[in-house]
Amino acid sequence: MSQATYTVQGMTCGHCVSSVTEEVEQIEGVRAVDVDLATGKVTVTSDRDLDVDEVRAAVTEAGYQLAS
Amino acid sequence: MSQATYTVQGMTCGHCVSSVTEEVEQIEGVRAVDVDLATGKVTVTSDRDLDVDEVRAAVTEAGYQLAS
């Protein structure tokens, strides 16, 4: 099991959290997504190491930005 | 046709706008709902005069507050 934390910019409410969670959950191998709205920290637990570009694509698809 | 403008507190993003719009549109007689996210102003066009309590209930149902 692998775990990594990313920072997402632009989330302002619970709907934003849901959108990001839903998109990131769709990445193959992802088992859990935990979002802290106040800090923008998104912790992803997965059964393989994720490529940051996969996470970035999911976050972009949700309408937000991964902090560089 | 009747038109009135209300101020809604707590909307922070387009999802919030959608939530409020959807709930207010469900009030009987409502024909159009226009939300300005920056100001929180919600303009409602309806084919009858609305009771402010109906609007307040819809906004609350969406998870936001009507400014008093």
From TrEMBL, chains A, B:
Gene3D superfamilies with a match to the protein in the record: 3.30.70.100
Claim: Cell membrane is one of the keywords in the record: no
Pfam families: HMA
CDD domains reported in the protein's UniProt record: HMA
The species this protein was found in: Kibdelosporangium persicum
Keyword annotations: Copper, Metal-binding
Transmembrane stretches, start-end: none
UniProt-listed NCBIfam families: copper ion binding protein (TIGR00003)
Chain ranges of the HMA domain: 2-67
Protein name: Cation-transporting ATPase
